[in-house]
Write a structure and sequence with these properties.
332 residues, alpha/beta, Rossmann fold, 3 domains, six-stranded parallel sheet, six-stranded mixed sheet, 44% helix
Length: 332
């Protein structure tokens, strides 16, 4: 088995220097650090995390709290967060809240008992209600992707959700649609709805309240059910905005089941740009969030708090972009 002594001999440094590199202490010169890291890679050395934790007082584990694993957006985000954390030697402890405030409380307490070093919480509207509890845990934390309003001074890396909705509404407005409906998760996605309404209002278009359908199911099936009822009640609708792609995929399915061709009879646009959007039939027009940047910014922010290199919490808002595919077209 490769030991720290073997790494030191290969790199031509002391065991203490190798330890300093492994534990990311800033006392090592960049050239020496690079030499040690190369030796670690060449020898396939794996640090003993238990021993490392005893020596540093850190578990090298970060807690991740997400609403669900059923939505591919969250699984894609988790993969990216995990890769970003691995670069700095951290593992993850994953918990889901299932949109349940009581479960969110239980999961936060459970994570604290696991001796994690910090928390990244993806807010679905429930975690933000537990900020007092999060602060009582006395752990560095970052809210990730939050949509609800967050108190000043809270560390948060999020998307401009209103801008995402605006881009969706603007796209349909510029195509010439006026009979527009929305399928979404409310109140969780209220800022996306607000943005869409604002874009449409610039063209003197209002979304009738009866055409705004909230679904309790955060799934493709939820999109199918909501859109099927919506299209039955409002056959005049020529375009639907779904507040996330999984619902939009359900809208596409409902359109086909009710005899509507997309985009000839009905335009559909989502938000998130999950991997399945590009392979949908037809490929889904959507609004893409910079998920890689979200993951990296969240990790950088949290590690800055952990290492005391970031003196004050900050709020970072990332800008989305429109991705036009084949599910939207001018109305006939």
């Amino acid at each position: 088995m490769v030991t720290i002594k073997d790494v030191a001999l290969r790199a031509g440094v002391t065991k203490q220097t190798v330890s300093n590199v492994i534990n990311q202490r800033p006392v090592v010169k960049p050239a020496t650090r690079e030499r040690v890291q190369q030796a670690i890679a060449e020898l396939g050395y794996t640090p003993n995390l238990i021993a490392r934790g005893l020596a540093t007082g850190q578990s090298m584990m970060i807690g991740l709290v997400v609403p669900t694993l059923a939505n591919p957006f969250y699984t894609e985000l988790i993969e990216r967060l995990e890769r970003c954390l691995e670069v700095d030697g951290y593992g993850i402890a994953l918990c889901t809240t299932d949109g349940d405030p009581d479960r969110a409380t239980q999961q936060l307490v459970t994570l604290k008992r696991r001796y994690i070093d910090g928390l990244i919480l993806f807010d679905d509207g429930n975690v933000s209600r537990h900020l007092d509890l999060v602060r009582q845990l006395e752990l560095p934390f970052v809210l990730c992707g939050s949509e609800p309003e967050i108190p000043a001074g809270t560390p948060v890396v999020t998307f401009d959700h209103a801008r995402a909705g605006y881009l969706a509404g603007e796209h349909l407005r510029e195509l010439g649609h006026r009979e527009i409906a929305v399928v979404g998760e409310f109140p969780a996605h209220r800022m996306r709805l607000y943005g869409a309404e604002r874009a449409l209002a610039e063209g003197s278009i209002a979304i009738r309240p009866t055409r705004i359908v909230s679904t309790p199911e955060k799934s493709q099936r939820g999109g199918v059910r909501a859109a099927t009822q919506l299209l039955a009640d409002h056959p005049e609708v020529t375009a639907i905005i779904a507040t996330h792609d999984l619902l939009a995929l359900g809208v596409l399915q409902a359109a086909g089941a009710t005899g509507r061709r997309v985009p000839d009879d009905l335009s559909v646009i989502g938000i998130d740009n999950i991997a399945a959007a590009a392979s949908a039939e037809p490929p889904l027009t959507t609004v893409a969030f910079p998920i890689d940047q979200l993951a990296q910014e969240s990790v950088d922010h949290l590690l800055g708090l952990l290492r005391l290199t970031r003196p004050e919490p900050a709020a970072v808002s990332l800008t989305p972009r429109l991705v036009v595919r084949e599910s939207t077209a001018p109305p006939h």
